[in-house]
Amino acid sequence: MGSKEEGNRWQMKLKEELIKTQQLATRLMEVLQSGPGEESLVDQVLSAVSKALVILDAEGKAAAPLGDEYRTEISDLKKKKILLPRRVGYRRRAHPYTCRTILAETNEDGYAWRKYGQKDIHGAAHPRSYYRCIHKHDRGCQATRQVQKTDDDDSVFAITYMGEHTCADAATLPVQGPRCVISFESNAAGQGAPSLKKECDEEVVSSHSPAADSSSVFPDFSAFMVSAAAAADQYDVTSVFRSSTSSLDMEFDPETFNFDDVFNRGDEYIS
DNA sequence: TTCATTTGACCCTG
DNA sequence: CAGGGTCAAATGAA
Quick check: A123 pLDDT over 60? Predict the structure, then answer.
């Protein structure tokens, strides 16, 4: 095809355009001072562009087309840690979503999760597993969860949900929520409890506090209520619907109530 | 061959 | 610097 010189020219041009795009996205992010959705989108754009630049730089140095031979070379460089692009757009727990922790007998909740990591946690008997929604990439679903067996009971999972599913449809909606042994409430949620991480307005779902969004954790909320009540029959389940101790001081009819509304409003209150 | 999980390294926050 | 969250290559299962 073209000469080496021509190849370099289009690479330069491409790089120029990518840099321009990167700058524009950066400016856009500043302008937006945006909500999570837009910010994450801009992040993705920035990340993609930065990665492209890294690749382009690598390719450019070799000034050769991307043949298998060259790919192997890059792979080798990576192995030797000579060519390791810094993770761009890497943001930990940057999402402003709420966290909810429950205890459940199973880590199955009907959603499709992809495990992306596991860590031994300091002082904990069991490792913590990290899951994200399988639709993170194709639908941009930001929901993640952490699953860890409790120290005192191997059969009970402490599951922390972060973010909500934005991928929900008939194919992904769970048939039934997890069998919940018990769930807690930190009534300090929104009151700045010192133990709560700043970056995560942790809201621990309570059997007493259904007004907090339980639907994202247990889309089949009534099933959750029944199992929770069965597991802890000392709870006055009916009282939860009258509870005024929750962060959302409101009454509702569980038959007709729209949990999505609660969640959305809940976010406003929480954040 | 494809896809999910494992695992070690990277990176951020306190 | 330690601890923990995330990434992505390696590996294994279907």
Answer: yes
